[in-house]
TrEMBL record:
Ranges of residues in domain Multidrug resistance protein MdtA-like C-terminal permuted SH3: 334-377
Record protein name field: HlyD family secretion protein
GO cellular component assignments: efflux pump complex
Residue ranges occupied by any Multidrug resistance protein MdtA-like alpha-helical hairpin domain in the UniProt entry: 105-173
Residues covered by the Multidrug resistance protein MdtA-like barrel-sandwich hybrid domain: 64-202
Organism: Chryseobacterium geocarposphaerae
Length: 418
């Protein structure tokens, strides 16, 4: 290529790049100038604020008794079934008594034999005592007779204890209800053998009163510090997904439960079950209301978290022809927070307030506001949707088919403003 043309081509490329750069710089500043600042404001208002803790738990009877047996044997008869209403002292089941009765008979026979032996040795002692006093027998013979009486008395005592235990075991063959209630579960069948060893086998589970239930909720260690006795509770169960049940915290247990490195604490919640919809074992999704404040001064949580973009704030001051210094953002600590307010001259400033509880939607304001302040919750920069009518179009921008610079065929929407 001819050096002259090469130089010309190079200069043309540089010129074209410069023109494009100037165009885009012009477009950027034009858009910034045309951008509208949208500001959202609220005022101090009276609201209700509630904070809560969620957990899962299990519905259980308040009073539940496991009925077992203290003796081994075969179940001869069962007189109740699931859901049976029972009274205290009612016979629930009966074990086979053949072996137990035989044990009683043997113990009784041994006891009576021991009594006869004691009677014999007592009579012998009385004779020996008289003979010893008369000097007929030696002291050794006298002491031997006394020893036999004493030893026989111990045998009688042992046989008496054995007889009492055998009779008690016989009585244990009858299984009685220890409380009034309803049979929740039956763990045995007639003809089944039960073995009483180190642990008493469970035959029945009886709930005292299923019109009053409790929820055993597992609360995470991060939330347990907020849970107190007496707090209101609502919960749902899968059996009635559209219905909400109410309760109250009765107990916060001190013992922790660790499972898969997750530490939880058991919270006992009393719940009314007069309609008997709640069944033992149902899984409950629990909400514990840790704080409930009504008709208190609040601002939206967005007002506390709002922090304007510095450039947007500068543009806001420019558009509203504010001559004051653009304020710097201050940050508060703990309960001391800063919020942005709009002044009468449209300038913005920050005000320190003291806050209370925060439910994620509203924040309690303890002091710092009079109620007349216009509180800023958002400051957004919005671009115009279309170019203004009559504005020049760039020769570098693509044109729609059948369009020209004089008639764009587009209409301008309402401007976005503050």
């Amino acid at each position: 290529m001819n050096p002259k043309y090469k130089k010309y081509f190079k200069n043309s490329i540089i010129t074209l790049v410069a023109v494009i750069a100037v165009f885009f710089i012009y477009q950027y500043f034009t858009q910034k100038k045309d951008a509208k600042i949208s500001i959202q404001i609220v005022k101090l208002s009276k609201q209700n604020i509630t904070t809560s803790v969620t957990a899962t738990g299990t519905v259980e009877p308040v009073d539940q008794v496991e009925v077992g047996t203290q003796v081994s044997g075969i179940i001869n008869h069962i007189y109740v079934d699931y859901n049976s209403q029972v009274k205290k002292g009612q016979l629930l089941a009966e074990l086979d008594k053949t072996n137990l009765q035989e044990s009683v008979n043997n113990a009784l026979a041994q006891y009576e034999a021991a009594l006869n032996e004691l009677n014999y040795y007592q009579q012998n002692y009385n004779r020996q005592n008289n003979m010893f006093r008369s000097g007929v027998i030696s002291k050794a013979d006298y002491e031997q007779a006394a020893y036999q009486v004493k030893n026989s008395q111990q045998t009688v005592s042992q046989r008496k204890t054995t007889l009492a235990q055998a009779r008690a075991n016989l009585s244990y063959a009858n299984i009685y209800a220890p409380i009034d209630g309803i049979i929740l579960s039956r763990e045995v069948e007639e003809g089944q053998t039960v073995a009483a060893s180190m642990t008493t086998p469970t035959l029945f589970s009886i709930a005292k009163d299923i019109t009053k239930m409790q929820v055993e909720a597992n609360v995470d260690e991060a939330d347990i510090g907020e849970v107190k006795v007496g707090q209101r509770v609502s919960f749902t169960v899968d059996a009635y997904p559209q219905e909400e049940f109410n309760g109250k915290v009765r107990q916060v247990r001190l013992a922790a439960t660790t499972e898969s490195n997750v530490v939880t604490y058991t919270v006992i919640i009393d719940a009314d079950n007069s309609e008997q919809k709640l069944k033992p074992g149902l899984t409950a999704t629990v909400t514990i209301f840790t704080q409930e404040l009504k008709n208190i001064n609040t601002v939206p949580a967005a007002a506390i978290s709002f922090s304007p973009d510095k450039e947007v704030l500068q543009n806001y001051y420019l558009q509203n022809q504010l001559t004051g210094k653009v304020p710097e953002t201050k940050t508060g600590k703990n309960k001391e927070k800063y919020i942005w307010i709009i002044n009468k001259d449209k300038s913005l400033s920050q005000k320190q307030i003291t806050v209370g509880i925060n439910d994620g939607i509203n924040v309690q304001v303890n002091n710092g506001l009079t109620g007349d302040e216009q509180i800023v919750t958002a400051l957004d920069e919005q671009q115009e949707a279309v170019a203004k009518s009559g504005s020049e179009s760039s020769p570098f921008m693509p044109k729609r088919p059948n369009s020209n610079n004089k008639k764009s065929g587009s209409s301008q929407g309402p401007p976005l403003g503050n």
